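To: structure desk
From: M.T.
Subject: fold request, one chain
Message: Could you run this one when you get a chance? Sequence is below, nothing fancy, just the single chain.
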Amino acid sequence: MDILSSILRYELAVYDTEGIHDRLLSGEPLAVHIAGQPCTAVLEESLHGTGSFTGTLSGGDGRAHLTISGDVLRGYFETGGVAYWVESTGRYDTESPGGKVIHYLFSSADVKGLSGCYLTLYNISNGGDLKDSGYPAGWTEADFLSAGHEIVPLTDADLVDLPRVNETLRTGFMEVPLSENETMRIVEGYRGKIAEYRGNYYVIDFITA
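Reply: Done. Structure tokens follow.
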């Protein structure tokens, strides 16, 4: 499995992505287990036909975001100050019915010494980036909030500690390597959220290699 070596602990799983997608479209709550505890996710599609669902976890004190595309599911859950991710390994389980994609699950508590990470940054306010960001054109702050997204400010002071983000904002260069400190700042402050900088909205994330 091509899983980042700095993820100290993870679990593998396969999903009936079609069944999950149909359930979410029907408006039914989704039963999930997080850190071994059962809870319920109430999710709504951000925009019709996008396969992107955002909502809350049991009790309203947690957030959830799922994106489903074919056999692949990407998930982000946040509760009790801990973030949890579901990511695709890009491989298929030949022993499961239909050969489903294998996913891996890990939490922010399971990550240490991140390395081999490369920045991805999309300007949602820029039409040229929209096809990659997955968000619709012309959305305002009210649209993001109503779809359940959290908006966090990105200031010049923040960019002092995010040198690669700062460089990409100004040059447009993509997939530049990140230091461990900058990667962790993105995980803790911006991953799974919408960043607002000088009136523009951004998706800040990273890929691993």
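Reply (cont.): Residues 25 and 51 are 9 Å apart (CA to CA). Let me know if you need anything else for the meeting.
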